[in-house]
Amino acid sequence: MATKDFEVQQLFRAYRNGVISQELFARQMDELVGAGDGHDAVPNVFALRGDGAKMSQGRLGKTAQSESMVFTLPANFGSDHENSHRGDQLIYVIEGKATCRVSGKECEIKAGDFVTIPAGAPHTLRTGAEKLFALTVFAPPER
User: Fold this and answer.
1) What is the CATH number of the domain that holds 91?
2) Does the residue 87 lie in any domain?
3) Can you give the pTM of this predicted structure?
């Protein structure tokens, strides 16, 4: 009997090799791993982008080892309240700019930049005139 992981690998292989269409791939992935949790098996990151009027986030996926999401911070967003997490947090900036402070050190981040925040490190993000749209991964998941 094939495991779900094996079936997913075979489905990816068939799609990459052009054996099945994108529509069939998405439908079968939803059946295999979407399983009615209200999230697409293969979510589109840009479909979850906020309009920038307020802070927003959208969940991409979650496993026992990681959780991924996208978030949008509006222009002129800032907080002196620093967050910390029990695991690592990775951030990939898709659009916009911000000032990132991690463990007291600040740097400017922009589209294409990748930030690694170690477990337990206090950190915060602050935007200027532009909104920020980014993908983040928590390992292990926050909740």
Assistant:
1) 2.60.120.10
2) yes
3) 0.72
